[in-house]
Amino acid sequence: MVCEVQYGGRITDDLDRELFNSYGEEYLKDQIFNSEHVFKEIHNEGGSGGREIFKYKIPANQTGELIVYRQYIESVPQVDNPEVFGLHGNADLTFRLKESLEMIDTIMETRPKDSNSGGGKTREEIVQEKARELLNKLPADYIDG
């Protein structure tokens, strides 16, 4: 029901709906209430050359204290391994490469264009002129204050 409600409100593509329902079947089942249930166990290379194991699960909390959940949340890796979502490890590399290329494209598209005509104003002159224009629009007490 959660997946269908979410689909009806936010997801507009049939393939996205199928993916969301697959996640729902995996993550919203009776076994999650078993304190031993682990959604995913990930093996990462540790900083000291060893392998770290992190278990994505709902932490056991007999006392119901909020601090238990906060401590667990703080222990979750800062960057999720793509395997947590059922993706190949190279998915992260592909994502980062795509993001980097998009950032470079954005920088290239928004950088100032050089004018080789020689008669135009420099960027600094344009910025100073705009600053003077805006400064003249301010009330006198704001400028002196």
Secondary-structure blueprint of this entry?
Layout: H1 2-9, H2 14-27, E1 40-45, E2 51-56, H3 66-75, H4 90-110, H5 123-137, H6 140-144
Antiparallel strand pairs: 1-2
Helix pairs in contact: 1-2
Describe this structure in words.
- This protein is mainly alpha-helical.
- The protein has a domain at 1-33.
- The protein is built from six helices and two strands; from the N terminus they run ααββαααα.
- The protein has a two-stranded antiparallel ribbon.
- α1 (2-9) runs antiparallel to α2.
- The protein is elongated.
- The relative contact order is 0.05.
- The mean pLDDT is 80.
Summary keywords:
145 residues, 50% helix, two-stranded antiparallel ribbon, 2 strands, mainly alpha, elongated
Work out the number of β strands.
Answer: 2
Structural class: mainly alpha
Cα shape: elongated
Mean pLDDT: 80
Largest sheet: 2 strands, antiparallel
In terms of DSSP E residues, the strand content is: 5-15%
First-residue to last-residue Cα separation: 61 Å
N-to-C order of helices and strands: HHEEHHHH
Residue stretches low in confidence (pLDDT < 50, at least 5 long) are none
Task: State Rg.
Answer: 27 Å
- Strand order of the main beta sheet, please? 1-2
Q: Helical element count?
A: 6
Helix content: 40-55%
Question: Could you give a quick summary of the protein structure above?
Answer:
Helices cover 50% and strands 8% of the residues. It is mostly helical.
